[in-house]
Amino acid sequence: MNLPPVLQQFWATMGMTDLKDLPPAQRAEILAARLERSERALREAETALEKRMKELFKANQDLGLREKELAQKLEIESSLLLGALSTVLMASIYGERERGFSVSDSAATILGLPEGEEATLESLMASLHALDRERMMREGMLFFRKMEPGVAHRFGHRIVRQDTGETRWLDWSIRRESHSETRPGYLLATVRDVTEERRNERQVRALQLRAERRLAELSRLQSELSTAKGRVEGALADRNRFISEMAHAIRTPLAALSGALELLRRDVGGQAGDDLAVARAASEQLGEVASRLIEEAAQDEADLPALAQRVTSIEKPLAGALMPERPKVLVAEDTESNRYVMERLLAELGCDVTCVQNGAAAVEAVRRVGFDLVLMDVMMPIMNGEQATQTIRGLAGPASRTPIIGVTAHSLQSERERLLSAGMTACLAKPVRREALETAIQTALISSRDVGLDAARFDHDLFRRAFLDLPKAYRERMRQAAKTDISNYAADVLTAVDTDDEEALSMASHSLIGVSLNVGAIGIVEELAHYREIRPSGDASIEVFRKAVASCLLAIDDLYTALVEGAQ
């Protein structure tokens, strides 16, 4: 270790006993070194002391803040505690055998003592309600004699306040400790005024009991309503079945009668022709009466007006809508007289007719032989017309698109809508007139001539009413507006699908459905609803909807020519 020369000289002279024995120059150097070392140590100590003082100052600041926060928190909690004690009206009692009992000041408030008067055990006992005094005295004796020490026991009783004379309920928690070597036995009790709590509990219980009774009553009424609903539904089903059977039983022979009279009209003249006209008029009146009776019997089944097939109001064949040469028509009808009449009427209209007696035979005939049109009776054995229509629509190839005209004994809008939903092109109500039959056939053939039936499905009755309810001057404008609106709203739907904008799709769909239903374009509505139903699965294709829109736009002009211009 290399030391400065001064220190080397110092250590060399360590054997000397005193600095005065050193030369003056050496003594000065040694003293200067000691002074420098002391000053450096002093500066380091001052720096450390200053740092420590800063740390202590910051710690004092933090401690002051914490003390302030704790004081505020303690003040808040004390206020809450005092407020709670004031609210619950709680008092305490402490007692020892030699010292007696001491009662907290809050007991005076509970007992309603005059201001300044202290509460004592005697004043507590004097405030006991007459109905509870004997019981509490007895339970007090048992408490000291038999009840286990070290355990809190609960008691409840009434008092009479001295200031107001009001009856109040008190709740006690009393615990006594036996004496030990370190301290004598003592008693500790807390008492609370629980009058409001008891009142609230009674009110809650009363409400619970009332609610339970109400629920029981509602359950009973619901059970009775369910039973009554079952009876009503059963009665409605029986009534509807009776109406359906009666409609079929009445209108089926009426259809044969009307058709036969229609066929005889061309072959009978003179006096016999006049007699036949009377018979035809009577037949028509009978048919109208039967229709009115059946419709009024089922009037509460739907709010919509009865069908009363509107096509029968056309008094002449439609102009500009000639039928194709010798269309092949399949007639599915279980009643022989109606088959005969329908076959004769269709033959007069220039059709090649094939007849079957039930829906199953109709499905098989359509599967094996191609037909231009099917006239399908609704009520038939083995398979009814609605089931047969659904089965045909499920066939493969062109057979599934064969136009089907339903012939029903009912004339209700709900019946017609159900048959159209099953896949029928149109519906006729019995008895069927020649003009109505010709109109329905022409319309159905036009609908299937240029576009597929499934893609361009229309409710023809809605289509006709949409235009015929307007003045003639506005009908053409309505047709153009309908085509424009359908095109625009359909484009909005397709754009929303491409951009995956669910909100825009909902708005465009709402608008398109509205304008489509105005003209009876149910094909558009059904395909759009089907697409939106399967859209969340991720496997939906918009192409079927696109084709339905295009097909319906193409069919509007043909339907307008057949159903609107021909009715002018």
TrEMBL record:
Residues 328-445 form the Response regulatory domain. The modification 4-aspartylphosphate is found at residue 377. CDD domains: HisKA, PAS, REC_hyHK_CKI1_RcsC-like. It is a multi-pass membrane protein. Residues 153-206 form the PAC domain. The keyword ATP-binding applies. InterPro entries: CheY-like_superfamily, HisK_dim/P_dom, HisK_dim/P_sf, HPT_dom_sf, PAS, PAS-assoc_C, PAS-like_dom_sf, Sig_transdc_resp-reg_receiver. Its EC number is 2.7.13.3. SUPFAM superfamilies: CheY-like, Histidine-containing phosphotransfer domain, HPT domain, Homodimeric domain of signal transducing histidine kinase, PYP-like sensor domain (PAS domain). GO terms for cellular component: plasma membrane. Residues 25-62 form a coiled coil. The keyword Phosphoprotein applies. It comes from the Bacteria. PROSITE patterns: PAC (PS50113), RESPONSE_REGULATORY (PS50110). It is found in: Cell membrane. It catalyses: ATP + protein L-histidine = ADP + protein N-phospho-L-histidine. Keywords: ATP-binding, Cell membrane, Coiled coil, Membrane, Nucleotide-binding, Phosphoprotein, Transmembrane, Transmembrane helix, Two-component regulatory system. It holds the Pfam family HisKA. One of its GO terms (molecular function) is phosphorelay sensor kinase activity. This is histidine kinase. It comes from Allopontixanthobacter confluentis.
